[in-house]
Amino acid sequence: MPREFRLPDIGEGLTEAEIVRWLVAEGEHVEADQPIVEVETDKAVVEIPSPYAGVVLSHGGAEGEVIEVGAVLVTIGEPGEMSTSSSGDDSEEVASGEGGDVFAAAEPIVGTLSEEAESLSTPGSTASPAPAAVKALPIVRKLARDNGIDLETVGGTGPGGRITRSDVESAIAADHAADARPAEPEPAARPAHHEPPVRTHAVGDIAVGAGHGISDEEMAAEAAVPQPEGHRKPMSRLRRTIAANMAKSWAEIPHVTTFDDVDATRLLEVRKALGDRHGYKIPIEALVIKAVLPAIDEFPEFNASIEGDDLVMHSRRDIGIAVDTPDGLMVAVIHDAANKSVLDLAGEVRRLGEGARERSLSPNELSGQTFTVSNIGAVGGGHGTPIVPYGTVAILSIGMARLQPIVYEDDLAIAPVMPLSVSYDHRVIDGAVGRRFMSLVMENLEEPALFLAG
Prior knowledge:
The protein is α+β, with helices and mostly antiparallel strands. The chain folds into 3 domains: about 5-90 and about 100-110, CATH 2.40.50.100; about 135-180, E3-binding domain (Dihydrolipoamide Transferase); about 255-450, Chloramphenicol Acetyltransferase (2-Layer Sandwich), CATH 3.30.559. It has 9 helices and 23 strands. Strands 15, 18, 19, 20, 21, 22 and 23 form a 7-stranded mixed beta sheet that branches.
């Protein structure tokens, strides 16, 4: 008997996912636990394995389409069986298997444009025929309705001419581009008797002249309102998630940022020595995380979160690292960082960075941080004002170390100076505490023996 596999919740609060690529085609055999499809969530591209062995009877959506959690992802059965969603009949279909089990067909992908409207006609008029069926998933039809797109004008690129989400997004972009073109100015009408036009403004219901004339050219210039040049394109799923999280954090968290500079001479010496000993470059983030952990122990409010009227002080040290990817900024998480050595942290920074750029990390590796480190120095940055990730209270940004003159024991010296910026939630952390936290981090960075000995 055909079995339906529905899209599971593979992340925290996942509501929908976009089908990126089918790994097993319709009609092909699949083994239990064999990856069958790649889907994109808000943060990652994830392979979903098949829970059953058998033949793929039908896919629940085409590549590029978005399906909701709980919707049929794939139907699997035996050779020769028919998928419960493959019938052309729009009515609900049921079938009985051994033991009298009954199952319902998946929602058909074919809908009509008249789902939410009634045909209205005046007495004596002839009702117009119902519009032809348009092949599109409900979520695709909703996207079109929300943006004023007539699906009958959209060409479908999916299987059998089905209209995909990408088709509708392209139509939206084209519609916006058309709206953005400057309108051709209409020639200004010349007043009767060729009298000079008078600029007026309204006071209540009375038009009052401004007292002087304006030329036809001026009136035409005022009538032609220029539109900004360029084009629009829909934001990617990841970019929409980033935008929503940033807006929520900025709106709810009163940010304060403390700036300072640290002499990174000893830090870079230790980094080089470790790299020479072990034969690979040590990511600077690994040493910074190790330096931050004692400061978190001293000031645990930096490793907390707000829940209602309570401040939750986390016992774990799950450190997020900001990763610059081609698709946008992502935060990968080193869980239980306090129990990892510098070399362990270095390996995790490299692994998570590569996984984030390849969009191959699991949801667990992209969530749950209790404190975040952002290395903007990797792209040449200095001081910054990092936004606190929602659900945490603090983030440390490190800039690129550059040679600068400094005063050292009453003498002028040249040293690599690393900019530091720590942003924190002022509801939780007072300025004096923020300053003490920064001072301890600086002390550790300037002498790595203080945190490597622990």
